[in-house]
Amino acid sequence: MRRTILMVLALLALGGAPLAAAQVMRGPPPGLLPPPVTIDMLQSDLVAKTGSDTVYFAGNGHGINAAGQATLSAQARWLLANPAVRARIEGHADDRTPRDYALAVGERRADAVRDFLVLQGVPAAQLTIISWGKERPAVGGSSEMALALNRRARTVLMP
Amino acid sequence: MAVLLAALGLPAMAAAQDKPPAVIAVPQLATPENVSTPAGDTGLIARYVADVIASDLRSTRELVPIGPENSRVYSYPESTAPSFSLWRKTGAKTLVTGFVQSRPDGRMTVACYLHDLAAGREIARKGFVVAPAEWRRAAHRCSDAVYERLAGRPGWFDTRIAYVAESGGGAGRVKRIAVMDSDGTAHRYVTAGDSTVLTPRLAPGGETIAYVSFAGGQPHIRLADAEGGQDRPLLPGTAMSFAPSFSADGKRILFSMAMDGNTDVYVADADGGALQRLTSTPGVDTAPSFSPDGSRIVFESDRSGSQQLYVMNADGSEPRRISFGGSAYASPKWSPDGEWVAFTRIAGGTLGIGVMSPAGTGERVVTTGAHDERPSWSAGGRDLLFQRSEGGRTGLYAVSVDGGAPRRIVTPQDGSDPDWSTPGS
């Protein structure tokens, strides 16, 4: 688990709106530093403010449904408000997808999410994508519910 | 493990038109002088070598070995001049003799001779100078020589199996590339387990392994020396590359690259040079596999909507769909004899193994597990290795392409993505 301290990012994120550079540089007096903000705290903030960091897909598809579009629109606003925070879109496929194809499907899903965010105004340079194929299931087992929860793309903030 | 793996090549339910197998005598090899080596006394190694040769030949359709158990023990001079009349009484048609001799330089000579008992003459011989610990390899190459002379086709006993060894659960799942000799011995790990790795493919002879690694984040193809040491990316840069597969001569690698939501098939020299794109349709084109003569490529594409199998020329021209069975099809692999394509068939929420001709005819179901995937041909071309997932575990299995019950291949940990090398030159 990465615990990189991101003081400046923390102020940007928790302040709700970007602060002027001068305020950031002035900082609190010595000995009264705020608790260090980790990338995990930023990720929690993203989830709290946008509802979810994950969108789900049907079958082998990469189409983003209405719920996914609402989530991603909110994520786009968060990323626009925090332009110094980079995000990696991680695409996944379910366990019933053959291994090579799963890598391709994961990439296609991550790419679809990136395209959506870029169309909402997020700078492409702020985003990277990778595919995990079926290597990182969110839920174990092979029930229909597990499969559905694993067909996903997650927006992961990067230090 | 060796014993269980030897079962891999059990004679299949031989087709009716096949000739009955011929009996071959495989007595213990001789040694001119019993000398101690780091791998054991030469007299003991002489017995081990015969055990391995007999085990190898037992896995073929054409030969039934007798011995070395309960077989006559002969003297060193008899290895080149056996008593033909005595050996004829065993009912065998042919006889393998040989010797193991320690050398002053610390290595040893393993020699084997094949005799035609009816004609009373030697018909093949092979000798190897090896480190004592390499005796097993010499034995496999003796088996190769015997098989090639008697069956008229190259043997495949000096080959390797690569797979992904899996341990730990959930997010802590560790995957390592592992490789072993095709008789299950000499098992070793090629990667350390610090990065997720997938889909190893062995170059002919099994010295080099192409595989997919998530080291650095983006999945990409790497090439590793099976003995450890060398390990480098196939391509420069940070593109996402996966699904590697060697040509039969080992000089080229087929694979996929994904970019901007589109996955295509590419080919490059085994050193990463001469990169060429072979498909350009929107959608996913992946899991490419060369025909044994290198003239054609079978691959998986969802250009029609669902995953189907296509065959194209090696330059990417004239792609033609070959699968029309109403299911989805994945991970095709061309057989070493060129006659068949094995694949994963996805139907009714289950994954099973099947075969069809490269023209798309003669489709046959080989397994009907809940989750069997990724078939790879045995080097002899008679068995399919595949991965079966069951109750949260995943393991390697082999099944005769003629049908029958799949056999578990015992590995030290869970296993996936098996691949069997073809013989080297």
Can you describe this structure?
The complex is a heterodimer of chains A (159) and B (425). Chain A has 159 residues and is of the alpha+beta class. Helix content of chain A is 44%, strand content 15%. In chain A, helix 4 packs across helix 5. The longest helix of chain A has 21 residues. The N terminus of chain A is likely disordered. A 5-stranded mixed sheet of chain B has the order 4-1-5-6-7. The longest helix of chain B is centred in the N-terminal third of the chain and has 17 residues. By secondary structure, chain B is mainly beta. Chain B is globular. In chain B, 10% of the residues lie in helices and 42% in strands. Chains A and B meet through helix 5 and strand 3 of A and strand 15 of B.
Determine the fraction of residues in helical runs of chain B and give it as a percent range. Answer: 10-25%
- Strand fraction of chain A: 15-25%
Query: What's the shape of chain A?
Result: globular
Global morphology of chain B: globular
* Physical arrangement of strands within the biggest beta sheet of chain B: 4-1-5-6-7
Structural class of chain A: alpha+beta
**Strand arrangement across the biggest beta sheet of chain A:** 1-4-2-3
Main sheet makeup of chain B: 5 strands, mixed
**Mind summarizing the main beta sheet of chain A?**
4 strands, mixed
Strand content of chain B: 35-45%
Low-confidence stretches of chain A: 1-25
Provide mean pLDDT of chain A, rounded. Answer: 85
Derived from helix and strand composition plus strand pairing, the structural class of chain B reads: mainly beta
> Could you state the oligomeric state of the chains shown?
heterodimer
